[in-house]
Prior knowledge:
With 280 residues, the chain is mainly alpha-helical.
Amino acid sequence: MHTNTPPRSTIRLTRRGRVALIATGAVVAGTAVAVPLLSLGGDGETKPKTLVIPEGWRAGQVYEALDKALSLPAGSAKKSLAKANLKLPNDAEGNPEGYLFPATYPLQEKATAERMLSFMVDTANKKFNGAPIAAGAQRNAMNVYQAVTIASIVQAEAATKADMGKVARVVFNRLERGMPLQMDSTLNYALNRSTLKTSAADTRIESPYNSYQRMGLPPTPIGNPGEDAMRAAISPTPGDWLYFVTVKPGDTRFTADYAQHQRNVAEFNARQKASLKATR
């Protein structure tokens, strides 16, 4: 165990959350991976529309998008899971979170929620079970599902593609030292929200996704990561970092020194207060 870790209530590993993904959703959607046009049961005569699944979207967001795209009653896509017969790893226990691969999918007239979800999971399996990802996971003493879980955290936490490898390294370093991950993104997932603000009360909630109170990885991915996040999860950037905070756009600071991290967080807080005052 890492005996020099300050009390959990005082550690602020990160103040990043899913709000960053939403704010940049237009950019992410524009760079979603293109999937080859496959027949989804249509007659081949109807020109397909497309459904864009941005990197980092949660399963709930995918279900809602499917319902809207297919003109289905709210909740239909989620209910279709029972009969979709998705090819998920055993560790997933039927939960497709992490395996609804971010991409641009064709939507033919006769597309169904079951077929679309299967299409997404099959695409994920092709991406994740190939030699690079599977071998990379094994090289880091984990299975592919654990790699997807780490990648989902990286996707939610990293401010930029360049930061992904460093965020992944923080996750590995904390796990190796027996430290709780203390990621705000896992709390946001538990609370089904997107925010940069996490209170002390939030860190005490009873949830297997509360990485402030629970050791190790959350039980499932917390979103659906893209290929860049997956690469970061299996090939983290070398470094000794244990903490990070995005002080301002384009300025995420990583450190192994808790005192330095506190100073970085103080600067973040000061900037937030100044920005709030300026908008009043």
